[in-house]
Write a structure and sequence with these properties.
Structural class: alpha/beta
Strand content: 25-35%
Shape: elongated
Number of strands: 17
Helix content: 25-40%
Strand order of the largest sheet: 2-1-3-6-7
Length: about 240
């Protein structure tokens, strides 16, 4: 599990690091190691490309406190638990309750921290949906299999067309993306530079595959029948 820790109080921050390290030692043979990354400023945290499994926050800056940071995290589409560590600010009263918010009072008690971590780990296990990691110029981002219609590579760039109409761009070669898709049976390369999600196929027309969003994609002529057979098989599952 990966945790982001931001705390305005240096002493409290060091103490939380120690507590999380001890929890990690206790859990490494059961639920796994806990990795903690510490941030001294909200800007550093929000500019991090990593999506953490939980965010432990007690930033008390006048113009940018933990609630403001949490709001910015949610605005990025990140739904990981936000753990507000309450000291001088009662984050219950900062604004509208954000989804997946957790509150713990300082000074942090070992038993309470352990219980919060148990809840976070259970939620992570219960809600685990396999995702595919991509990276653009600024950050890593994660997409679910069902959301991807197709991907096309060009040089060191991959264009990802999504079911909701959005288009994302990732750094890397399309060949390397294909290597990361072995656990997803719905993806299929139809030529050297295009990978489709068979669940989004509308029909086959000659040498083209028509996707449900209306996209027309060319198949490799040498493997046309093999591609068609694989699409039929995938759609039957």
């Amino acid at each position: 599990m990966y945790i982001a820790l931001a705390d305005s109080n240096v002493g409290d921050r060091k103490q939380m690091e120690r507590l999380l390290e001890r929890e990690s030692d206790k859990r490494k043979m059961t639920t796994g190691v806990i990795y903690t990354e510490t941030f001294g400023s909200s800007q550093a945290l929000l500019s991090s490309p990593t999506v953490y499994d939980a965010y432990f926050l007690d930033v008390t800056d006048k113009d940018n406190n933990s609630y403001d940071i949490a709001t910015a995290i949610r605005a990025k589409g990140i739904l990981s638990p936000i753990v507000y560590c309450i000291s001088s600010i009662d984050y219950h009263n900062c604004g509208e309750m954000l989804p997946n918010s957790v509150f713990i009072n300082k000074p942090i008690k070992v038993a309470e921290l352990s219980l919060v971590l148990d809840q976070i780990l259970k939620q992570k296990k219960d809600n685990l949906i396999p995702t595919i990691e991509f990276r653009d110029q600024k950050e890593s981002f994660y997409l679910e299999e069902r959301d991807i219609v197709y991907m096309k590579g060009e040089d060191y760039s991959v264009t990802i067309v999504l079911a909701d109409g959005r288009v994302r761009t990732s750094n890397g070669f399309i060949e390397n993306v294909w290597k990361e898709l072995t656990n997803f049976d719905s993806f299929l390369p139809i030529n050297n530079k295009t990978i489709i999600n068979a669940r989004h196929v509308e029909r086959v027309a000659g040498m083209s595959i028509i996707m449900k969003d209306g996209s027309r994609l060319k198949m490799n002529i040498l493997h046309r029948q093999e591609i068609i057979n694989k699409i039929k098989k995938l759609l039957q599952n």
